[in-house]
Write a structure and sequence with these properties.
This protein has helices spanning about 10-25, 35-40, 55-65, 90-100, and strands spanning about 5-10, 30, 45-50, 80, 110, 115-120. With about 120 residues, it is an alpha+beta fold. A hairpin with a 5-residue loop joins strand 5 and strand 6 (about 115-120). It is globular, with a radius of gyration of 16 Å. The model is unreliable at about 85-90 (pLDDT under 50).
Length: about 120
């Protein structure tokens, strides 16, 4: 079987989330160098490898499930924005929102890194 590189990750969590999403969709894939990168910081990162025959489908799945990036700091840790700041979501709901596979039904987000609120429709 010939496997090809789909994407490299700098951290274990994001790599395993992407791996799980693809495997749930029936994509034949695996991670390379995940244990080494966890121990030492390698420039190549953790490599998500997919079977060459499923590369296009796997790429499309990751594009569909990609989280929006913060326009201020470029951070990937964004959660759905709240209508009223004083109403905080529970930790469980926030984690669910971070790793939600389907597209959300709203367009307002808040960056966990810098706190900026932004709207995807603009």
């Amino acid at each position: 079987m010939a496997f090809v590189l789909l994407k490299s990750f700098s951290n274990y969590v994001d790599a395993n989330i992407a791996l799980g999403v693809l495997q749930q969709e029936g994509i034949n894939c695996h991670l390379e160098d995940e244990h080494i990168v966890t121990l030492i910081n390698m420039a190549s990162g953790i490599r998500l490898m997919v079977h060459h025959s499923q590369l296009d489908r796997a790429s499309a799945i990751l594009r569909e499930t990609a989280k929006p990036l913060c326009p201020e700091c470029g951070g990937e840790m964004v959660i759905p924005g709240e209508e009223e700041p004083e109403k905080r979501r529970s930790v469980l709901k926030s984690l669910r929102a971070l790793f939600k596979k389907t597209a959300p039904d709203h367009t307002t987000y808040r960056c966990v890194n810098c706190g900026r609120k932004f709207d995807l429709s603009s």
